[in-house]
Amino acid sequence: MRGPRGYDTCRRPLCRAAAGVGGTVAAAFTVLALAGAPPFGAGPERAVREPEATASPFSPVDTLRPAITLRDQWGADPRLLDQKPRYADGVHAVVIHHTGHANDYDCSDSPHLVREIYATHAVGKDWGDIGYNFLVDKCGTIFEGRLGGVDRAVVGAHTIGLNRGTAGIAAIGTYTEGVRVPKALRESVARLVAWKLGLTGAAPGARARLVSTNSSSRFPKGTSVTVPSVLGHIGAYETNCPGEALVRLLPLVRKEAARLQNKARVLVKGGGGGDLKPGKHGAEGRPAGTGRAAAG
Length: 296
Hints:
The chain has four helices and seven strands; from the N terminus they run αβαβββαβββα. Helix content is 21%, strand content 10%. Strands 3-2-4-1-7 form a five-stranded mixed beta sheet, with helices on one face. It has a two-stranded antiparallel sheet with strand order 5-6. The protein is of the alpha/beta class. The longest helix has 26 residues, at 244-269.
């Protein structure tokens, strides 16, 4: 059995990542409870499984859920997988990363980039799986990352010491000072944040209480810490990730995610179905302009 795995990936370019997403989504959900966040960490230990996450205020298929390109659709090779999912009681905070790739990639190549990152994390770094929970390309396509279920609180390997109770979202590219962040990417990240935090009733503008599991983070092991519900990787670990351009946009991401949650609450209160116009980045679960055949 391998020991804990995982380091800070955002500190240097990885391989390449992501493609396809968008679309319309489901309706019908129960009650929306609103409430109200560190480098790659030790990955989950093999064969250790946690209890199911607690019941969610959202239906598994709700109007906030964005279109997501799933693992089998972007071509995750099961032969590289050497890790079983672990679960937390919920996602209380979201950690934003960037992958360090050049920004001139074609979005049709995103699935190939995601497969490269998967291979680097699972085999090259010996983590057994991809570290991020989700990846988003510059066209706004959202990709499922770590195995375990997109609607569940899967413990990733994206922010050492604070993997439990957080979801890692990686923007494919390099977003340092002065770099333009594409609107489609920002909007998809905001929607994904609204949905993932909403599943456990957390508000994007609130703060979350977490317990550090590794002193290599900014917080000694065993320390109870309070962090923003939406934070950059730099807030949890000594790193330049996710880049100054993305860090500056975090207040806007929080605001937009909160707006989406509030709109969803109004729809539920009024008994309305309808969707929240999730964007035009492709059909549910299918990379825009690509398919599994995009594999390299």
